[in-house]
Amino acid sequence: MRTFLGDCAMVIVLAVTSALLGADPFFNTPAQRKMISVYGSVDDWRLQILCWWLAALLAVAAVFARHRWPLAAMLLATACAASHLLGWPAMMLVSPSPKAMLGSDLLPLDLVVLVVLYALASAAGTRRLSLAVLVTLEAGLVGIGLVGPLIDTPILTILAKTNPAKSPVDKLALADPLADVLWQALSYAVVPALLLGIAWAAGDNARTRRFHLAVLQARAADLEREQEQRTALAVATERGRITRELHDVVAHGLSVMVVQAQGAQAALHRHPERSEVALANVITTGRASLAEMRRLLGLVRADPSLAPQPSLAALPDLIERVRSSGTPVTFAIIGEPATLPAGIELSAYRIVQEALTNALKHAPPGSRCSVDLSFNPDTLHIRVADTGAGGGTPVFGNGLRGIAERVAALGGTFRAGPADHGGFEVTTVLPVAAA
Fold this sequence. Notes:
It catalyses: ATP + protein L-histidine = ADP + protein N-phospho-L-histidine. By secondary structure, the chain is an alpha+beta fold. Helix content is about 65%, strand content about 10%.
């Protein structure tokens, strides 16, 4: 709506200004002004007024069509300006008399050409076309500026012969030919050509800026989508990590509780005191598992870096809980313990926890477990084995799969399967230096 109102205002201002100034002799060339001073004004301008209004309609149509059809609008605007520039010589060929004269000068309404040329140059994909139009218009203006004085003299001679009573027109027509040529060149070749070049440059700059902004917007949209994908991937990774943590905690705690409850049930009648100890261990393990679950679930709402994470220093407590369930566990450290990155220590703790949980769930009663940590300069070797039946193909549940994912994320190696001397073992090698 704003564009439509602006176009209306522009057309009205240019049309009114042209109507007020179109008959002013100031816009004629020096020779034409001298001829008008000799012959005076004509008394019949009906044909000229009709042509003027037709040109005004062309200008109006060009203004309103320039956004949708810029090339067609350029043709209409050019026709409007051409009617003003070429109207007088064309009409003189039809009726060589003073009454047929139409001032061959540009009017304010012809500024529509600049507006439409700007629209054409700023339209997408029309740079070569708009440049060709600019060159054509410039060539036409230069031609009119150079050829115009050659046309004026014969026409003025014809007018002088039609009214010899007035002063000697032959001399008047040639009174100052150099000034007439300079005026024509300045009026039609220099100033309008400069204005056309400015309009085209402004439109081309607008098109370039719009294209650059479109590229930047597309690039920003791509970056935003990429950031959203990264965020979604990070969320999925974090969810997977928390899921593995919950599985490790819940599976280990429940496995220990089940084993202890089974022992308490078996000793309920023959050794009541052992049942009490086993039940107490069930309560302790359950509380510890609940506390660990609350800690992990709290990570969803808090900063994970602020929450304490299990480390290798907590392995003795973990092994003691397994021992309290009735499963003997030996723990050995080979080499000189070193301070490891937090990610390595947490992963090592979870690997041992899940491997012991796997042994409690699948090893037959009476099996023994062993946990061995071997510290090397560049790697940490972890081995968790039991003495149960280790034949057959190992079935990878969520626990063993979680261990494999942890080790792969750290760039280590993982193996789970029957041991060489019977039983089942889980072995991993974690690169300490890479972490």
